[in-house]
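NAD kinase: structure tokens wanted.
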Amino acid sequence: MTLRIAFLASRAPVAQTARAVLIGRYGNVEPEDADVIVALGGDGFMLRTLHTAQALPAAVYGMNRGTIGFLMNDYSETDLMDRLEAAEQEVINPLSMRATDQFGRQHKALAINEVSLLRAGPQAARLKITVDGRVRLSELVCDGALLATPAGSTAYNYSAHGPILPIGSDVLALTAIAAFRPRRWRGALLPKTACVRFDVLEAEKRPVMADADSISITDIDWVEIKSDSAIEHKILFDPGHGLEERLISEQFT
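Answer:
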């Protein structure tokens, strides 16, 4: 059986050129009719593709036409059908973010990697952190904080000195960004079922923005985040190069 493939590409010329070549070799269908969606670009485009395809039955196989390509496979034009047939599937759940801004407006977004809160002015942010209805940190003075999934733990979370989490672990990483008070607080590991709430203290004087996989909301009053197990993102990797192996390898580079 020949796989029906939908080729999607970022706006980068190298990705667009690759898409044209691959369509000429393998044909192309619409994503809703595809057995597999092939995303051509970098990690940012892969995240956008996963969000777009979350309601579709097809899994997503990325080929790197970007910079780092942590979520991508190596690019090749000649053996794609064999690679797709042999690919191994990883299933990940996103974070669901619910937020209210200072004007009372409600916002919702999903994040595959992380939800981050970042100061939006010259002064440090002041955040109160509540986990499952219990205040765990009455005041965190910082540049920001984030909650990361295992799949996103090597991204912004790792740059902020947060831990790398094994794929399949029922854990989320809560990580401070440049914490000032408590100065030595480096974050926490939380069960995947946890509901985390950030309240912005002195929101007008110390404005904060929230970002969920590049969906940004300004003038945040509070944010509530939890894993959404009802949504499954299906990602395909070449054998031996899945997320678990990449997460382990990243810790030895």
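The radius of gyration is 19 Å. The longest strand covers residues 134-142.

Cheers.
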